[in-house]
Amino acid sequence: MRRIVVLTALVALALPVQAARADDDPRPFRRGTILPSVALGGSFSRNYGGSLLVGAGASYFVVGGLAVGLHLRNVSTFYSQAYKESVGPTLFAQIPTNEFSLTPSLLWVLYRGERVAPYVSFGLGPVFLNKKRGVLGQWTIGPGVMIRLGGLAWLDLGVGVGMRFTNDRCERAYTFVENGNSYYPDYACSFTWGFRGGIVFGVGGRRQAQPPSRPPPPPSYESQPASSYPPPQGYPPPAQPVPSASPPPATTPPVASPPEAPPTPASPPPAPVETPSPANPPPPDTPPPTTAPTETSPVPPPGENLPVPPPA
Question: Which of 15, 37, 42, 213 is the most exposed place for a label (fewest CB within 10 A)?
Fold first, then answer.
């Protein structure tokens, strides 16, 4: 059994673009994102030569983190001169040198982080061989992780594993006969694996920030032409006062004020009266002194008494 180690370096350029129908999920790889891709890779071996891979495809995220896709791939194999001489021209004419595959695929992003996004990819489809070797089936699975380098750039690292089926059909396709002797390369229908690495540009994988909505501008006022306005109307004449039918109010004659009375003359001050005492007894049977009216002291009206000062 011959052991062949194939190291595959795959550089993929992925340009996610935003589809028309997209949800409001701000994380990368959201629903509605289309992921077209271009692949270029190759392999080499010290025993038989090398190969060149060219591919293209696209994936559509039906939900956030889960995409369905279709990928086309063409692998051309270049055998070394030493290998050709070892198998001979008759056998080498039967060995296929070109493989074209059409692979529907699923891509599942396990964690849609802003810095790290691990994923698993799975594909299953037919492989067409040249030199009339028939059609085979092939499945592939590729776990990996994408690491953000900055801005829109992601570093894609992973491992690809695959195998062709069915085993009987694969053995018939790679069994070569010469002069009754058959030759079958044991590596053709076994597991294949390889490392995968590349740069992915996540354009459109992140939801673009929407500018804040602005209120609509107020409606502009447009003046109408003067001909569209109605002609001016004259003001009505002022209303004439209407005489009141109620009788005039009755007039009341003014009330005359009473005549003023002459002022009352002021009372003169009372004359001092000596109070009798033991030292100065009043004379017997002496009438009380009377005050003769004078011009300056008016006679009090009858019925009024003169004030008597209190005793000392």
Answer: 213
